Amino acid sequence: MRKILLSVLCIVMTACSFTNHEKLEPLHIGFIGDYSKFERIETKDGLKSFRYASDQVKSGFYNKIIIDPVEFYPAEVPSEQLSTELFAKTKAYINKNLVEVAALSLEVVEKPQAGALRLTPRISAINISPGDIKVRELIPVGSLIALGKAAAGYRYENVDIYMEFKATDSMDGDFIGGSVKQGKAGEISGFNEVVTFEHIKPLLDIWIKDAKRVFKQLKQFNENKQQ
After folding, report:
1. Which of 35, 128, 163, 213 sits at 20 to 30 Å (Cα–Cα) from 26?
2. CATH says 24-134+156-226 is which class?
3. 50 strand-pairing partners
4. Which residues, listed in sequence order, are joined to residue 186 by a DSSP beta bridge?
5. Range list of β-strands (E), 100-141
6. 70 exposed, middle or buried (CB, 10 Å; 0-12, 13-18, 19+)?
7. Domain extents for the chain?
């Protein structure tokens, strides 16, 4: 029994190491290209992000923004659990809310012009991964049942989302900043459950609030420049 408990604890430790998103995961990035200048930051909501902002961004030069429609990168990959309808709802929700929160701090424009940055958001993956063993399952009998369910495909699974936001100068296209986000959206009961928009909406709302703070900071950079 002791050996079984030690094995379970090893599994838990391994699972945690793969779900805390402390490092950029090569399998789910690539749109931005060069991530050498990105640094991990802790946002106010407690989630981890990776960001880079050039001196030009911080100088307060940008007071306008063009927001490209969000798409999947490199492509949408529907499955029995991830439907094209889910993808469409996700994109529509992000597009609508990004524009709304950006407009609170910056002038949203459609054409390239001086003082306008272009923000291009991409969803690099909506991924389903094995769920962690919860604390309530770490008892001898419960552990055995949990491991048995995992092997049979009945344990819950995590729904993870990966996004990239690329910022460029709207006039010359130079890369001036970006953000990479990796987060756990929700849980599903097993491989037969279909992921719905309600599973991922809470995480999208957190990221949109974070974007709102970033847009507000850009406005503050511009105001500081004018003083």
Report:
1. 213
2. alpha beta
3. 40, 180
4. 159
5. 107-108, 116-130
6. buried
7. 24-134+156-226
Flag whether the pTM goes above 0.85.
no
pLDDT band, residue 20 (cuts 50/70/90):
very low
The interaxial angle of helices 84-102 and 197-226, nearest 10 deg, is 20
Distances (CA, A) of 192 to 7, 16, 195: 27, 24, 10
Q: pLDDT band at 71, cuts 50/70/90?
A: very high
Could you tell me where the DSSP H helices lie in the chain?
Answer: 2-19, 55-58, 84-102, 140-152, 197-226
User: From CA 91, how far away is CA 87, in angstroms rounded?
Assistant: 6
| Identity of the residue numbered 90 | T
Contact between 52 and 29 (Cβ < 8 Å): no
